[in-house]
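LAB NOTEBOOK - FOLDING QUEUE
OPERATOR: T.R.
BATCH SIZE: 2
PURPOSE: Compare the predicted structure-token outputs for two unrelated chains run back to back under identical settings.
PRIORITY: normal
REVIEWER: second-year student, initials M.K.

ITEM 1
FIELD SEQUENCE / FIELD STRUCTURE:
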Amino acid sequence: MTERTPNLPSRLPGVGTTIFSVMSALAAERSAINLGQGFPDFDCDPALVDHVCAAMREGHNQYPPMPGVAALREAVAAKIETLYGRRYDPAREITITAGATQAILTAILCAVHPGDEVIVLEPCYDSYAPSIELAGGRVVRVPLAPRSFRPDFERIAAALNPRTRMLVVNSPHNPGAAVWTRDEMLRLAALLAPTDTLLVSDEVYEHMVYDDAAHVSAASIPELAARAFVVSSFGKTYHVTGWKVGTVAAPAALAAEFRKVHQFNVFTVNTPMQHGLARYMADPLPYLGLAGFYQRKRDLFRAGLAATKLLALPSQGSYFQVVDYSAVSELPEAEFCQWLTREVGVAAIPLAAFYDGGFEQRLARLCFAKRDETLRAALQRLQQLR
């Protein structure tokens, strides 16, 4: 007999190495400053680590309840009620997840059947479409308005039909940094009201909204909350993206189906971190102060970009800044970002990577969730583009 690996038809034949991996590898090879991937290069609050370490020492090291540690679910429910005015039952309607990406995948797997359609608004986070395909659903792509990244309700309405099982929205938006207004959320509610379409509301950047604007959660609109899986992320909020802990709030009937899938793909989430997060949430200042913290970094970064030939588009929320490089180069976006990494020493992500099949606008995404010295060093390099 000879050794032979059987042929395995791919469940995701269109998925290859992501642009994030490509650009990060190139940044490391060239010793470039990596403003491509969306994570901080600074540490979290030591008090949060102390809470987790204390939970470990106290023996919180075995499986927690499948939906999450009760104290953390209660803290999340209390926060949502205070900020958005809706009371979720911590026992039945709040689930702790292994990050927001798992939360989104689980929401899709529990609801989408083969042949169902799911609307995504492009450009969008790259996990949405593969999650839909794994569920056997059909991805229906509706573009946001170019450059402003605002919803086009006429196109959304045209895409809705009896086969539409779900719509995925993201505000504050990655990669476009736009924030949906209350009027837009209400218009979405009116559009979905006569349908049976479910909603995944990806709100992982909920606390990063600038210039005194407010994040409008789907939880704050009763007509949306009744059909929504509202997703958030402790990793984004507390600068601990590697911990991979998130939350989903949903009406009891939806949460029950969500938990059926959750228990068989991760079952439960890191115990001491849940206890540590629950204790840390007793003080709301870390998340209430996050907008001011990141707005200062955004303003520092945008002021530096003004001294370059890169045109900064509005950044209303998230920790991303989209720039137009038309005055610098005529290269396609992926080639420009590779050139920028090799020749200037700053890594960025082409916006076309967030569209199916690409969409060239001479735009690139930069992340400002970095130490001030990192941002200043990157700006010094980018100012070669004057």
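ITEM 2
FIELD SEQUENCE / FIELD STRUCTURE:
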Amino acid sequence: MEQLTIIIILSYLIGSIPTSIIYSKYFRGIDIRKHGSGNAGGTNVFRVLGWKPGAGVILFDGLKGYIAVAIIARLYYDPILPGGTMMIEEFTLVQIIAGVSAILGHIWTVFAGFKGGKGIATAAGMMVGIAPVEFVVSLAVFTTVFLLSRFVSLGSISAAVAFPLTLVFRWNVFQVEIQDYSILVYFSIGIAALLIYTHRSNIKRLIKGTENKLSSLSLMSSKQKEEAKENISQ
């Protein structure tokens, strides 16, 4: 099972790349963890530094998940690598293991004291590689909820829940044949639970009515903004 070990390690490491920290530090001269919500994720970059840097960070974080399931997972069947007998026949399961490793790397990155982002973008990239139809539905749910509420966290949670529901609906109502359906359903429920867990502080703020709306945020103080501008101009 050496192939699987290699896949887990490589996927975790690529997931651990702290995109937001690297961008904010080397291109803007600030530590994103000391601004805004303090989270090392794309949404915080979006809020603090603007939509272009935020979109770039989110896209790269998503790419980490996609690479794990679309490229790294295929090493499991690479005859060049050591490994002995293949014990997992379902490629979807291998992809899930790789994708989860990348998500865990993003949430608990080894390159930043095991404190990273919340894993939504990396999970989204993973889902694109495994179940594109369900991803599109989840993306539509996220977009709708966000546009109506202006809460990124609520949109993310709604999208996470929508994924397994879409699987169940397509399989049972439309009778669509889905490869490794049972594995995907149980996995998607687990990943939704994980993402809800990483958003537990957001859920508390939503209940209390103190969650920040993306459209009306000004999370950096005047002093912080001036320092950031000075760092950027140097």
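REVIEWER COMMENT (ITEM 2): The chain has one domain: 2-221.
FOLLOW-UP: none requested
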